[in-house]
Amino acid sequence: MKIKWTILAILMLPMLSVNAQKELKGKWEGTITFGGYDKKEGDKFEMQLDIKGKLVTGYTYIYKNNAEVIIRKFSGRIFEDRSFYLEELPDAQASKDKEPGQESTLRKYQFVFTRSVFDSTLEGHWQDITNDPFSQSRGRGRIYLHKADKSKA
């Protein structure tokens, strides 16, 4: 009898782990910080990911304190180690959003996906896309995300 339960448990483990692990594709939500990599508090940030092979596409949503929402389309690549690189794509709205004298309001992102049965996470950083990557005025910060609850969507 003990052997039957052991065999059943072994056969069920792959099904449980596949069902319990959350996929990378879909809606992620959390926080984006501004002003450097050492900040912990920031604005609400959401990201919708779609993955086809190694290509990652989707949209970012930054909810500013003044009720403004900045929406950008992005494209990027996922790597074998579950990290990925994204760049926001130029559009008419991005050109309108930039301040006079600024190069761009577009960003590039790097994330690491940590898969978990309980709460999968995406953690990474962002920085402005500029002609001078060593500029002191270049925006940069951290991003902390968790998979959005499907029951809310």
Defining traits:
153 residues; alpha+beta; Lipocalin; 8-stranded antiparallel beta barrel; 2 helices; 43% strand; elongated
Low-confidence stretches: 15-22
Instruction: Kindly give the count of domains.
Output: 1
Largest sheet: 8 strands, antiparallel, barrel
Reported by name, the CATH topology is Lipocalin
CATH superfamily: Quinohemoprotein amine dehydrogenase alpha subunit, domain 2
Q: Structural class of the helices, strands and pairings?
A: alpha+beta
Assign an overall shape: elongated
Number of strands: 8
Q: Terminal Cα separation, in Å?
A: 44 Å
Give me the CATH architecture, please: Beta Barrel
Order of helices and strands: HEEEEEHEEE
- Determine the number of helices (DSSP H or I, runs of at least 4 residues): 2
- What's the gyration radius in Å? 19 Å
Q: Give the amount of beta strand, in percent.
A: 35-45%
Average pLDDT across residues? 81
Supply the CATH class: Mainly Beta
Helix content: 10-25%
Strand adjacency order, main sheet: 1-2-3-4-5-6-7-8
Task: Please characterize this protein's 3D structure.
A hairpin with a 2-residue loop joins strand 2 and strand 3. The protein is built from 2 helices and 8 strands; from the N terminus they run H-E-E-E-E-E-H-E-E-E. It has helices spanning 2-20, 92-97, and strands at 26-32, 43-52, 55-63, 69-78, 83-88, 107-114, 121-128, 140-147. The N and C termini lie far apart (44 Å). It is an alpha+beta fold. Helix content is 16%, strand content 43%. The longest helix has 19 residues, at 2-20. The model is unreliable at 15-22 (pLDDT under 50). It has a single domain (23-147), classed as Lipocalin. It has an 8-stranded antiparallel β-barrel with strand order 1-2-3-4-5-6-7-8.
